[in-house]
Amino acid sequence: MIEQAATPKVSFVVTNYNGRRNLERCMPFILAAAEYRGLADEVIVVDDCSTDGSVEFLAEAFPTVRVIALTERSSFLGAANEGFRQARNRYVALLSNDMAPERDFLGRLLGHFERSEVFVAHASLVSPSGRVESERSVGRFLFGNLKMLNTASRDRGLARLLLSSERVSRYSLFSGACGVFDRDKFLALGGLDPIYLPFYWEDADLCYRAWRRGWKTVSEPGCRVVHFHEELGTIRNNFDREYVRTVERRNRFLFLWSNIDSPAHLAAHAAYLAVNLAFSVFCGRFSFYRSFFGSVRRLPQVLERRRRRAEARLSDREIFAQVLGERPADSLTLAPTAAMAARRSVA
After folding, report:
1. How do residues 73-106 score in pLDDT, each as one tens digit?
2. How many whole angstroms separate alpha carbon 287 and alpha carbon 225?
3. Which CATH architecture does the domain made up of 2-136+172-238 adopt?
4. Most exposed of 146, 156, 186, 262 (fewest Cβ within 10 Å)?
């Protein structure tokens, strides 16, 4: 068993931006998890040009932590990429600064890497009160758009209809930052793609590229990480809500345009765009246009990524069936009618 190895072989990488308060609360838990059973011998905090004294605080309060202070703002994905490049171990535990892992976090996740095809194993996120926020994330291509759903919400809303037990894949989308990665595979994929700056969908894109190569992304339900999202979340506390929504939608488009080859799925998405672009004019929701034209401006980057994409072992159809749990009949009902789209809020 990997978790019984005598030599530590894990590096922690923690991303931070103006998170001194987060670090003060969460770093003791991270260090305790790193020291447990001697599985980790390196804790790295990559600071993304903080102005709140985070770097000075770490030097004083946690001198054993290795701090990499970036000189230019790079967001979560840039900070994570730099951490992976500089980590010295084969396995890297990636955490955001608002996450406090359980002490046996590493031992529970490392066992999955006995299978050589595993790319990432991730934990469940729970709130400080113990409510499960995120468990297993899966995707559903619905009405020309990709929706990310979580099994923690399987009894509510759309998830209740689409996440029946027989359709939940054994795969799980790594979403956010609470998992252990095979560093070699991460670097082979080129890490998180900067086309998604400043945030959102970079993790889904990374998983999709891993799936194309036949690598697995798995969850460990018994492993939990406390997430202080409401109180300490970096995006929530540093960016306007409407801006966040616009960026999230734009990056969802970029994800689809960068990764999907299936003619049926692309046709359904084109219909979704046409209907929603027209509908947005009548309901005055111009944020959809901001998202759309924001993604169009990055279209040259999308085309470049498609040209240099590595050879795939799995097709879109295989990924949607095997990984995301889509039934063959689902692909026949993807394109929305105008009436159906008009009844839905613009996503």
Report:
1. 999 999 999 999 999 999 999 999 999 999 999 9
2. 34
3. Alpha-Beta Complex (3.90)
4. 156
